[in-house]
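Newbie here. two chains, one complex. Structure please?
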Amino acid sequence: MSLDKATVAKIAHLARIKVPEEELGHLAGELNNILSFVEQLNEVDTGNVPPMTSVAAQKLRRRQDQVTDGGYPQDIVRNAPEAAEGYFAVPKVVE
Amino acid sequence: MTYIQGETGDWEVVIGLEVHAQIVSNAKLFSGSATAFGTAPNSQVSFVDAAFPGMLPVINAFCVEQAVRTGLGLKAQINNYSVFDRKNYFYADLPQGYQISQYLQPIVGKGELVLDLPDGSTRTVGITRLHMEQDAGKSLHDQHPSKTYIDLNRSGVALMEIVSEPDLRSAEEAGAYVRKLRSILRYLGTCDGNMEEGSMRCDCNVSVRKPGQPFGTRCEIKNVNSIRFVMAAIEYEARRQVEVLEEGGTIVQETRLWDTTKLVTRSMRSKEEAHDYRYFPDPDLLPLELDPEWVEEIKRTLPELPDEKKARFMTDFKLSAYDANVLVNEKAKADYFETVAKGRDPKLAANWVTGDLFGALNKAGLEIEQSPVKAGDLGGLIDLIADNTISGRIAKDVFAIMFETPGKTPADIVAEKGLKQVTDTGAIEGAIDQILAANADKVEEYRSGKDKLFGFFVGQAMKATQGKANPALVNEILQKKLNG
């Protein structure tokens, strides 16, 4: 598997990371190094190995259906670049 | 089968629906903040819901139970091992930058839903899957000229996405599907089905094809929020596609929006590149494993659902499919009917409930729960007809009074207004003798063959007794006196 510059540009855009044109080639090289490193795993037959979901043998923890949190709207918007009337205020996004 | 008539012949519409149903729970899917509707902005938001750094999701056990209960209600396969994935996209009302959803291994697999069609027939539609996911926040675009306001109260609320097979073939069937699904969810108590408050929203996948041909390219209409709009949007979209194809064009697979003011669907171009969601298992959550015993326990405590109730009403009460449908689509209506029907003629009870009562409620804009006439009192009214205290016609008047003056029993009203049926043969005979004497000419005409006049005499007799005479007795006495 090998990534070209166009694919790197697309991934960067999907992740909303601004990558200047001249850096795309370099980044493609780095990503391809990582991919080929990981590709070594394909040499091992993992057909009968279940995916590892946790390093410790444990089950998903569950919570009771009780309201135990919330009720601090000022804290929620405190770090927002802009807030108004208790809402986050962001540049207009409208269809 | 309903087809769309085009210039080049018939077209078949193929529809699959994705319904997002908000799970009824106190707290959110992965946090302990509340789910109530209509509270102050950002007042029901925890740091988890707002995706503050380092916050971790912990699943709400009851939301899982609700999803399993819904799966069982849809006669679906329950997957005892399911996985939460991240669906990645950027939008201002999605603080995490991803939605926690289920992708390749959902909690519920294939099931089915029976459509009750207007002509009384039924059709089974496949359910592809049901998975759990988080809701996003709410964007308000109309509060400020250049800003969008974001309220995260809904962020993290548990949703079930219920996906149908592309088995629906008309806007009417799609409407029947959403209605039936809503009815089942309400019976189960897993979603309140309140589309106005956004507790149920629908994405409609629509394509058209010539009958017998493979599926055409589909368009997805996002976030339609009423059954009426689901039907209108599908109807519009199908006709648009037929028009494009007949003009030699091709359908582009895309996301479209239902414009509720112009009543058209239009392209949402910004969504196109967002479709690359790069799902992967959420490393913050272990797989969800269910104990089969626990699933069995939920199955044992399922309520009687609309299909079973309908079947029982048809067998035990001999109701028509139509009447049974009307009665079971809301549990409160079915319960009301059963109270009225208990120990009484079920057919008569069904006529009163679906006819007089539903008609009056509809006219007054009331729900069954708000009915001024309680089920026990409507039953009492039917008893008064059954034991000949009042005639069926007078009963209509009594019902109207009951509807206007809640709390009064039918017996009270009959006594107060002196509406008790006259079953005293002597009194009726007296009244009839007077009528016959006063209309000697008509009596003569009747006896010389003008049979139609019989109705005239009945009318006069009822009028003379203010409608209180027992109609059967009036008929009998008139027969005797005129023909005897």
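Moderator note: The radius of gyration of chain A is 22 Å. The beta strands of chain A are 62-63, 83-84, 87-91. Thread marked as resolved.
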